[in-house]
Amino acid sequence: MNPFSKPFKLSPGFLLGGFLALAGFLIQVLRGPVRWASLVFPANIALLALFLIFILTAFLLRRRVSFFAWLGSSAAAVPSLAWTLVLTIIMGLTAQIPERGWLGNMVTFWPFVLCYVWLTAVVGLVALNHLTRLGRSWKELTPALNHLGLFVTLVCATLGCSDKRTLEMTLHEGETVSAAVDENGNTYETGLSVRLDDFTMETYPNGMPKRFASDVVVTDKSGKEIVEVIEVNKPLKVDGWKMYQYDYDSEAGPDSVISVLQLVKDPWLPMVYVGIFMMIAGAFLMLFTGLRKEEAR
Amino acid sequence: MSWDSFIWFAAAAVILWAVGAALAWTGRNRKAAALVYGLGLLVFFSFIVAMWVSLERPPLRTMGETRLWYSFFLSVAGMIVYSRWKYKWILSFSAIMSLVFIIVNLLKPEIHSKALMPALQSPWFAPHVIVYMFSYGMLGAATLMALYVLAFRKEKTTAADIATADNLVVTGLAFLTFGMLFGALWAQEAWGTYWAWDPKETWAAITWLAYLLYVHFRIARPKDWSNAMWILLLAFVCLQICWWGINYLPSAHATSVHVY
Question: What's the complex ipTM?
């Protein structure tokens, strides 16, 4: 008797989750934590292709292989959500400080990662199910957007995280700087040259910072000069870099002549945004379509 | 306007809510009940607006201020449910829930100055929190429905009772999604990271997953309503931890930028 055949049951899913957690635990013991840093371009693109091929194959074979049909059903959604929920609660209850061991660095803990991969595979299959049923009913658009949006967001946020570059650029008033440092202390040439003309800061009567900003002149790769004020919540975008007001000499406060900018380049961000906006649209439609009910099983 | 006048606005609103709830119990004049109750909402909301004007910023910064919105939206959710599904008891319950938060605010107002740190001065700030508070109001009403079903209806539970919980959860979940994603977009604008697994974010994800679990359980096992109601209670516990319980979690204190 195939445990994944119809009528679909929840229990094999709870077992599968347990199996994934155990397998993850063994990998963790034998090979150590997930090394996200090695998942840079083009390895992440290759992994993405493999994952998409798996999901597409599972979708096409769903009528022949009952496991694949089950994997794209609500009976798989419930246990995968439950397992993900439990592991995320563990993350929420343990301080995320890597020195404190495996549970202190949940994002590199194999059971946690494998569980999310499982959830993402279910979400991808469900998205395909709804997308291919779009012709039948416009109501399918709601779950199609919700699932596809979440799938795109999860996949691109995860596979893209190591391609993201976050640098800090320390500027002194009057000086021009083009290099910036990453979190490990390595120096990079950004291709931009940035001159800080003035760092300004306003405070509340109690001395708490109200607003701080940097008047900068940025010269981009083509030699064009951009005169701009960068402040908190108002980043500047140049040559694919986003420049954020990050820090200043907090001891000098309003008299600081130092400003620290954060430079971020995230080539996967546009795709993450596509996913996020799909989910926003899906959630909006959900207000009108309500909870979709399948036939009672 | 200041917190000193809060007690008068709150008292007027609570009296109007009590009269509206009492009219709902009699079941004779539903329109009058909704009208009086709505008047209470208007009084309460005018205090929020007055605070907004006098603080020169949206009153959303402190726990006390978010409780203000929660009291308001809980009553809004109660009124929506009453108008659509005519439960006699819902107005009383939502009024009592709102009253609890009003009393907490009177005893522990956590009044803060006008100061708003630069990271919070964003056009995303108001929609992010207001949308969350509306969602919490809806999901609070769904929790009341779950308690009602588990404690009082039991074997007499009808499909309509569960459908009410479903509708409240779907509405709450949609707004929960808006709140979480607006937060991500805002964080990206403010410091270049849309998701950082900060404890507040982790618990927001947990709450979101818990309500997703409810929705998918309802689809997978539509007849098992009692377990569905238990999931709803569990989800609400997660929501409370995310909202304020996190301030008491040692794990969050070590690392969160969101503890206040």
Answer: 0.92
